[in-house]
Design brief:
Strand order of the largest sheet: 1-2-3-4-6-5
Radius of gyration: 30 Å
Helix content: 40-55%
Shape: globular
CATH class of the largest domain: Alpha Beta
Number of helices: 18
CATH topology of the largest domain: Aminoglycoside 3'-phosphotransferase, Chain: A, domain 2
Oligomer: single chain
CATH superfamily of the largest domain: Aminoglycoside phosphotransferase (APH), C-terminal lobe
Largest sheet: 6 strands, antiparallel
Strand content: 15-25%
Distance between the termini: 75 Å
Number of strands: 20
Number of domains: 4
Amino acid sequence: MEETTLVREQHRFNTVNLQRYLSGKTQGSMSYVSLNFSAGQSNPTFLIQTPSKSYVLRKKPPGILLPGAHKVDREYRVQKALFSAGFPVPQPLIHCTDASVIGTEFYLMEHVEGRIFRDLRLPGLSAPERAALYVAAVEVLARLHSLDLASLNLEGYGKGPGYCKRQVYTWTKQYRAAAHKDIPVMDNLSDWLLSNLPTNDNEVALVHGDFRVDNLIFHPTEARVVAVLDWELSTTGQPMADLAYFLMPNYWPSSLNLLSSMGNLITIYSRCRSIPSSLPQLNFYLALSIFKMAGIAQKSAHKNVVEAGLWNLFLPSVSGLSQLDYAHIAEETGRCVYAPDVFNCQAPDTGNMEVLHMFGTEEQKRRWLQPLLAGEIRSCFCMTEPDVASSDATNMECRLRRERDQYVVHGRKWWSSGAGNPKCKVAIVMCKSGSPENRHGQHSMILVPLDTPGVNVVRPLTVFGQDDAVHGGHFEIHFNNVRVPASNILLGEGRGFDIAQGRLGPGRLHHCMRAVGAAEWALELLCQRAAHRHAFGKKLYQHEVVAHWVAECRLAIDQTRLLTLHAAHALDTLGSRRARKQIAMIKVVAARMVCKVVDCAIQVYGGAGVSGDFPLAQMYAYARTLRIADGPDEVHLSSIAQLELRDQLRKAQAKL
């Protein structure tokens, strides 16, 4: 049976009212038990149990809904028509439009027993059994598309001809509304779909709209579909769209090995419908299906992450996590280049949000921190300059001066990470504002909206000659006498170094743990290659030099992880200032370690390692950059030596 959970707080309804309403309308006594189905949450779905019979209730979600969304009346109507025609759907029993009963409109249907597979690989079945179930699924899809609309009395159920064009427009709109960043390839795909609409877009049949294995109930023992579920997206339109959506997993990574005989399924479907099996425009429908999934994934992933409490995990006051807790999460996100963005934990926004949280005024928090925490905007941090050795911040030339109720910012910055993101709206700019005599009191940080007159985003920079725009790129920005309100200053003039110490400690920790995650990924790739490739009569891992690389990489990764976790604990218990030595140590060790591990992996892959066919070249660019970002190794080594000598002196004095 499909998995159920206790009814979620937000989905609870008045069961007494429901019992009263259903009294005399259903079989069984009025002793009800209601459970949430784990799936089916667009329209919340419940298992209603009585001592003698079980039912399924589908309702609209609570709250204000968009027009045309969550139309449970349409689901009830199409299921009723299909059940009357002998098509395998749960028998719809009652449709209630009276919202006073349980708070929203709902309908009740029979509960169908059988097998539901959430994993498309159908685990636990033999290859012939899996093939038989997929054949049964495609046969029932062909049966659906062969139904006569007129005989079903579904006049006006859909909009008729032009289905594909409507779908492209609808999902383009959905995707753009949900997108968290600009992805040019998705815009290109939308344009391609509009330019390659099928010539037979006027064909009309009843289509499911979400036909896949996990929306089917199979007979407990036979290769037969006993019910097709979830008709929320059903309409009238082009049946090939349903078929392509069902076949789409065949075009996922080959390691999933889902539909090994796609051609046979197309042949079976075509034979059942008595149509040619060539399907010349199948590629269009497959592209449309993938485009549709991209739109769904953008929206659902963000919503699910927020609801699961996985948003803004880096900020202790929001997540409730310590730096040590988050360090383990940062390692996992380091295994995927875009994982930090999924959780709103990407640099440089994390550091900027920490600055605003710790040092911002209430107005600064309202205007900038809140939308950053919500993921509505992005930010950049401007510190490094092209004309000076920026590892020594006292060399900084960008100037800040006060003129009445404004500050004027003038200077050049580069390596401003994230400035190319379309959502980037504000920069935190570090400037000189005081006299040189006060070495660590001459710098300030100020908020500069990027649409302020005088801000000129000059050019994107490359890393090893290649575009590195996965997170918004690195840019050169000129501030030409940019005027901003005096209220934009952070903490006050001359407090830039104080802010930097608070900002860079956690940020460096996050970088280092992500480096550990990246190194783990690189070592996995190395071992996979070494286990499958042969050279000079044996597999690569059987060569002693490669085996030693594997061992050395494991040693280096585990050493770095433990040192970084120790630094995270120090940051939690001692604070940023007193944990400076530990933070500096991991910054050196982690950057060197990940460079070494990725370099070994590249060597094992040979020419493929430096190509774009594998992620190692991009990983090496990131790893090598890490030895410079947030301060070069040499600066950190000097700091470590100074702090170690100080500690040794204190120990010696204590002994005296």
